[in-house]
Design a protein that fits this description.
Layout: E1 3-6, H1 10-22, E2 28-31, H2 34-41, E3 55-59, H3 67-75, E4 85-90, H4 94-102, E5 107-111, H5 115-152, H6 164-181, E6 185-192, H7 195-202, H8 204-221, E7 228-231, E8 236-242, H9 246-263, E9 278-285, H10 293-309, E10 315-317
Parallel strand pairs: 1-2, 1-3, 3-4, 4-5, 9-10
Antiparallel strand pairs: 6-8, 6-9, 7-8
Helix pairs in contact: 7-8, 8-9
The structure holds magnesium ion.
Magnesium ion is lined by residues 7-9, 59, 61-62.
Length: 322
C-alpha cells in the first residue's frame, strides 16, 4: 500500500521514511510541499496521478500552503476524499490540530515522532482504507447487479425484445412527448394468425421458437432508432413509432408483412395460408391533452380485430373499423 509523506523539512521526511521502511512499508513517496503533494495526487494537473495513495502523513506547519489548507483541498476532491490523512504536528499546535481533525483528518501524531506510535497509527489508517475500498467495491457490484435486474425486468424472457412493462412505460413517455410537441405518434398491433393451431400441431417448444423468430423479424422491420416493438401478450406484439404519421406506419406494417413472407415459416394448420401470417392494426395520432395512452391501444386493438374479422393475414387502420 502506498503512503504519501508531506513535510517541508528534509530531515523530518527522511526520518519518517526510515521508520516506515523499517516497519515494513516499501511504497513511500515524498513531497516537500503541499503543491508537490497536489501534483502527485493529480490535483490541479491534467497529468495522471503517480499512483493511488492509501494514506497521507501531512505536516501541519508548512510555508505557503499549510497542512490544514492542504487537507481541506484534498478532502474536497471526490476521488481523494477517502484517503486517510494523519497530521504530523508539534506539541504546541493544539488549536490547529483541533481544526485539522474537524476538517477531516483521521488522526495525528506528535513530533518528535515515536516509532511505535507512528507505525501503529499508520497501520490502523491503512486498515481503515482497506475497509473503505472493500465497501466501495461491494457498492459498485451491487449497483451493477441492480442495473442488470432493472434491464432484465424490461426484457421479455422468451424473445429478448422489450416486454409489456417496457411498452407501457415507453408508450406513456412517447405519448406525453407527442402531446406536448404536437407530433405524430403511431402504433401497430400484431397478432399471429391461428397460433393456437400452430402450438397444437408443432408443440409448445416449436411454438416458442416461432415466437422468437417473429420477434426478430418484427424488430428488423423497424427503421428508426426510436421505434420499438414489444411482446404485448402471448402471441401479440406491439410497435410504437414516434414521429411517424399514418403513411410511415403503413410502410412499416407492410414491411413487417413482407419480411415475414420472405421468412417462409411453415404453418400446416393455418386456415389462411400454409405459412405463418399475421393480422395487424395500425393507428396514428397527434394526441391531444384529454387523450390517454389506453385510448390509443383500444383504437388500434379495434383495427386489429377488424383485420381478423375481415379474414386475417391483413392490415387495418383505425379509420377502417366501421
Ligand atoms: Mg513543517
Amino acid at each position: 500500500m502506498a503512503i504519501l509523506v508531506v513535510d517541508d523539512f528534509y530531515d523530518a521526511r527522511i526520518l519518517l521514511e526510515r521508520i516506515l521502511k523499517n516497519g515494513g512499508f516499501s511504497d513511500i513517496v515524498m513531497a516537500a510541499s503541499a503543491k508537490e503533494a497536489f501534483t502527485l495526487l493529480g490535483l490541479g494537473t491534467t497529468t495522471k496521478p503517480r499512483e493511488n495513495f492509501d494514506l497521507i502523513l501531512m505536516d501541519l506547519v508548512m510555508p505557503e500552503i499549510d497542512g490544514i489548507a492542504a487537507l481541506t483541498h484534498i478532502k474536497e476532491n471526490d476521488a481523494l476524499r477517502d484517503i486517510p490523512i494523519i497530521m504530523v504536528t508539534a506539541q504546541d499546535e493544539v488549536e490547529s490540530l483541533k481544526t485539522a481533525l474537524d476538517s477531516g483528518a483521521l488522526d495525528y501524531i506528535a513530533k518528535p515522532v515515536n516509532r511505535i506510535e507512528l507505525l501503529a497509527r499508520v497501520r490502523s489508517g491503512l486498515k481503515l482504507k482497506q475497509e473503505i475500498d472493500r465497501r466501495k467495491d461491494n457498492e459498485k457490484k451491487l449497483l451493477a447487479m441492480n442495473e442488470t435486474l432493472q434491464r432484465l425486468s424490461f426484457v421479455d424472457g422468451l424473445t429478448g425484445i422489450p416486454n409489456r412493462r417496457y411498452f407501457d412505460q415507453l408508450l406513456d413517455q412517447e405519448f406525453r412527448r407527442a402531446s406536448r410537441d404536437k407530433r405524430w405518434l403511431s402504433m401497430i398491433m400484431i397478432d399471429i394468425d391461428y397460433f393456437k393451431n400452430y402450438n397444437d400441431t408443432y408443440g409448445h417448444q416449436q411454438g416458442d421458437t416461432c415466437l422468437k423468430r417473429l420477434a426478430q423479424i418484427f424488430r428488423n422491420a423497424l427503421m428508426r432508432p426510436a421505434d420499438f416493438v414489444a411482446r404485448y401478450g402471448g402471441e401479440e406484439f406491439a410497435a410504437v413509432l414516434p414521429d411517424t404519421d399514418i403513411q410511415g406506419a403503413i410502410i412499416l406494417a407492410e414491411n413487417i408483412q413482407t419480411k415475414l413472407t420472405e421468412a417462409r415459416i411453415s404453418h400446416g394448420s393455418s386456415k389462411v395460408s400454409d405459412m405463418v401470417t399475421v393480422s395487424l392494426g395500425v393507428g396514428s395520432w397527434v394526441p391531444d391533452k384529454s387523450a390517454k395512452p389506453s385510448n390509443l391501444i383500444l383504437d388500434v386493438d379495434k383495427a386489429l380485430y377488424r383485420a381478423k374479422w375481415d379474414g386475417r393475414n391483413r392490415m387495418r387502420r383505425t379509420d377502417e373499423t366501421q
